[in-house]
Automatic annotation (TrEMBL):
Highest rank taxon of the organism: Eukaryota
Identification of the protein by name: Guanylin
GO molecular function: guanylate cyclase activator activity
Cellular component terms per the entry's GO annotation: extracellular region
Gene (UniProt): LOC107326446
Length: 106
């Protein structure tokens, strides 16, 4: 029983820092979990490079897009910021240890 409690506590302790990571691009800040969700939505988009570059803003209409991206989607900077977030999320370990300057709260 004690081992189970320790395991649960340990997992919660390890997961807690990931909740606090914030990714900032230009004037926009997003939680790390939301950026990972965005990355998975972008990865599910067509793989054709020409189509993929056009899919950054249409991802704003995806029903699974976290609501914290909605203010970004209404700006002309949306495509550039989403591409930057996609690049950051391509190497998650770099952000999770805050080696990328856009990531903070580790």
């Amino acid at each position: 029983m004690n081992a189970s409690l320790m395991l649960i506590f340990g997992l919660c302790f390890l997961a807690a820092p990931l909740e606090g990571i914030t990714v900032q691009v230009q004037n926009f800040s997003f939680s790390w979990n939301s950026v990972k969700t965005l990355k998975s939505l972008l990865d599910a988009a067509p793989k054709n490079p020409r189509m993929r570059s056009q899919m950054t803003v249409p991802v704003c209409f995806h029903p699974q897009l976290p609501s914290e991206f909605l203010p970004l989607c209404s700006t002309p900077k949306a495509a550039n910021v989403i591409r930057a977030l996609d690049t950051i999320a391509s190497e998650p370990e770099i952000c999770e240890i805050c080696a990328n300057v856009a990531c903070s709260g580790c």
